[in-house]
Amino acid sequence: MHVSLDGFVAGPNGEMDWITVNEEMFEFVHERIKLSNSALYGRKTWEMMEGYWPTAGQQPNASRHDIEHSEWYSKIDKYVLSNTLKSDPAKKLHVLGKDLTKEINDLKKTAGGEILIFGSPSATHSLARLGLVDACWLFVNPVLLGKGIPAFDGQKEITKLKLGETHTFQSGVMSVNYSK
What we know:
The protein is an alpha/beta fold. The chain is built from six helices and ten strands. The chain has one domain: Dihydrofolate Reductase, subunit A, CATH 3.40.430.10. Strand 9 (162-168) and strand 10 form a beta hairpin.
């Protein structure tokens, strides 16, 4: 998840034009996602991803990143937190939402690797409030937004995390991994 130095994942109106992405970061992310065969999204983020990734790698001007990520996206199971969507096996779409604690804990037992959450601040907030986030990969952008959508919101108690891997990109963005 991209985050500003002052802890926001988007501006007050959902702006994300401050996020730095480039080939160096795409390569890093590609290596990370190879460790996972499932991704978790909030409904809005899944709709955005589903509108782009299924065909992104087939476009005439597709970048290497578009091709690789599109291939990965087509292979993985996609879990979406929603009260309105229906599961669709043809799209490898699994809808969660009736009992998140049970559903996520069951998923952790069967996923066969990391379960990645892409963006989805509302979903992240819900999962964090339930104590279901085990680790965070944050891409800290060297920018101060002052206000916006916080990366973490509604924590009921202090959660101490351990620093894992870090990586600094030439752009000044730093990737940090924290886990319970």
